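queue> pop job 88
queue> type: inverse folding (structure -> sequence)
queue> payload:
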């Protein structure tokens, strides 16, 4: 394990922190930003960054995202109060299964995955099949992020003012759920609760589908982007900004939330046919009404 150096990072450690040791698995954009927020806000006494790549972990340490880093899960989880998985959604259940026996002393385990039903159901099967009366896991999804990745793009302010969705089930330990809610609130987030199923259905339309459409629009305009990019203005760039997101992360999200995403693709197809019909009929009145309604909906998000 590499400990943080004394000096400026030592000033981030508060012996009266609300959370003692927080272990974060995955020190990229999300994990790194969380670690930096916890230390800057003196919310955690200690942040242990866990990952596979020693060089990337060293960068997290240098960025002030952790007080210590390790590739050893046993070492990383030792005496942790809270464990947070900040890795791609398809990796979370397997990493939980592989390291479940090392988590016994912590107060709760949570994640930051953008899909909840498969993650929560798979982890509950692991916990219930282990023969231990200990449901540690509480699903979470902080609704923040960026199309950029890596510790170099992390920010201690990423979580502040955002909303985190916590997804307890009938099997979730209520005290652990309250502890996880308190954790996200301490990071400056508003917290709402819903079932994993409701989460996936709603998030598909407001997060997963927009990313898919951004990828689609960029691919549709491939020739213009490659040969005439000078004519592309901010409208296209703003609309497709999230199309610069990581392919491994987002392919996993689409496949793990396949049912909801396909449903939204079908609704998008129907909506395109609707607007095509209005334009095809040169019905300016209906077209303006359609655009006006969309404008008012979008403006309401800024209130």
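queue> result:
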């Amino acid at each position: 394990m590499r400990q943080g150096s004394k000096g400026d990072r030592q000033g981030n450690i508060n012996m009266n922190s609300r959370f003692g040791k927080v272990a974060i698995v995955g020190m990229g954009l999300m994990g790194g930003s969380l670690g930096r927020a916890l230390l800057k806000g003196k919310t955690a006494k200690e942040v242990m960054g866990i990952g596979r790549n020693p060089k990337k972990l060293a960068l997290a340490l240098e960025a002030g995202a952790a007080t210590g880093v390790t590739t050893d899960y046993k070492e990383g989880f030792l005496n942790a109060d809270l464990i947070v998985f900040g890795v791609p959604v398809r990796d979370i259940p397997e990493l939980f299964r592989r390291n479940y026996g090392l988590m016994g002393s912590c107060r709760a385990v949570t994640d930051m995955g953008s899909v909840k039903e498969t993650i929560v159901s798979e982890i509950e099967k692991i916990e219930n099949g282990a023969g231990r009366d200990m449901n540690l896991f509480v699903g979470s999804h902080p609704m923040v992020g960026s199309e950029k990745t890596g510790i170099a793009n992390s920010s201690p302010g990423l979580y502040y003012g955002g909303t985190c969705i916590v997804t307890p089930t009938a099997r979730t330990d209520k005290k652990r759920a309250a502890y996880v809610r308190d954790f996200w609130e301490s990071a400056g987030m508003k917290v709402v609760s819903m079932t994993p199923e409701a989460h996936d259905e709603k998030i598909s339309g407001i997060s997963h589908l927009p990313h898919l459409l951004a990828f689609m629009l960029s691919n549709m305009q491939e020739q213009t982007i490659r040969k005439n990019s000078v004519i592309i203005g901010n409208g296209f760039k703003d609309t497709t900004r999230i199309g610069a997101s990581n392919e491994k992360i987002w392919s996993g999200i689409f496949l793990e939330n396949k049912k909801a995403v396909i449903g939204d693709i079908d609704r998008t197809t129907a909506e395109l046919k609707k607007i095509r019909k209005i334009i095809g009929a040169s019905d300016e009145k209906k077209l303006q009404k359609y655009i006006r309604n969309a404008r008012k909906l979008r403006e309401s998000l800024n209130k």
